[in-house]
């Protein structure tokens, strides 16, 4: 546990009435190391604990689709905290500003850890101004980022063994603490946002309504646990062999829940403990532990993670050498966004993302590669891919998303046979899809989604 804890502001506890947990990246009450640490600190100080969440309508690139899913999860957080007699204070404010205001009544404050620039900036700004102790607890990865590696890793193969060597140390049992001083019934002098009516709250926030919420998936820890249980029961046995089949949907759908911190990766790991060892189990752990935590490593150690400059030198050099190559077809951003290309497979993938907020993982790679091929410069292609991904995907604006887009352009990969436009960056085409898969199944599946909508 100690490796998960960082003192962002070292001071003696203040003579104030509450301990506050600023919940932001880890929006759950189960398997939350930050929450349990805050409870223990509150018990030690014999003070009630408040949990605070800052609800800002200005999070970069977030829209109604993202907010609706998040708010569904926060409704459950409020319900579950109430069961544990802990007050939940949601305020419509920039999170770090609300945390600073609340800290004036805090003996100490605990915060969970986020890896994106804005999340780190929030915590840094608060640490500069807060007058009480500020303690960060890392709980959205299994192996803490700096423990896994002290540098940016080149690829999954260079971080894999480092993570696996540490797994036994960070996958032990998780226990919850009893709350000694309940706060749920206290008459608190803080304004709180009413979470009961999500559509009205979305209107009140004034967030971008151009991308509507989806109804095939619901936010919240309990829904995540149900989906995970169904995946383990029904699909895990075929995961290694069939997860790349676009016509099928052999997927856990955990990424939106992990993005908002509504489910702990440690919980997922524990649910697999009684599953017999197999290539399927190994492949799933590779995805939600190794690959996911490689993405955390990337955005933490590479300050340019959301720009073209994040790419390795070899990739930028080879793409630059072929930047003037003639493109057979160039599409506008509007044509891409409206799935108006001459490629039915790409159009289906784009439509899947726009309608559902997700895209089949293999098609996500193909989708990104074709944007390179259909855009005048690789720099513009990078911006287009990131824009579309972050706008429509439920798990957009995530370390996995930034890493996935960068991979399309050569990050965490190596050079391949040189060809026009791509240079030595990995190439994908429709013929490759057809050789590997029955793509009519994918077109039929996406066609059914269109009919349902």
From TrEMBL:
The record ties this protein, via SUPFAM superfamilies, to: Cryptochrome/photolyase FAD-binding domain, Cryptochrome/photolyase, N-terminal domain
A Pfam family that this protein carries is DNA_photolyase
Does the entry feature the keyword Flavoprotein, yes or no?
Answer: yes
Please give the catalytic activity noted in the UniProt record: cyclobutadipyrimidine (in DNA) = 2 pyrimidine residues (in DNA)
GO terms in the biological process aspect are:
photoreactive repair
Q: What class of enzyme is it?
A: lyase
Q: Which UniProt keywords apply?
A: DNA damage, DNA repair, DNA-binding, FAD, Flavoprotein, Lyase
Q: Which PROSITE patterns match?
A: DNA_PHOTOLYASES_2_1, DNA_PHOTOLYASES_2_2, PHR_CRY_ALPHA_BETA
List the InterPro entries hit by this protein, alphabetically: Crypto/Photolyase_FAD-like_sf (IPR036134), Crypto/Photolyase_N_sf (IPR036155), DNA_photolyase_2_CS (IPR032673), DNA_photolyase_N (IPR006050), Photolyase_Class-2 (IPR052219), Rossmann-like_a/b/a_fold (IPR014729)
Named from the GO MF annotations, one term is: DNA binding
Which stretches make up the Photolyase/cryptochrome alpha/beta domain?
A: 17-145
Q: Could you say which cofactors this protein requires?
A: FAD
Q: Which residues form a coiled coil?
A: none
Q: What is its EC number?
A: 4.1.99.3
**Key word Ribosomal protein present in the record?**
no
Family, per the entry? Belongs to the DNA photolyase class-2 family.
> What protein name does the entry list?
Deoxyribodipyrimidine photo-lyase
What species is given as this protein's source? Alkalibacterium subtropicum
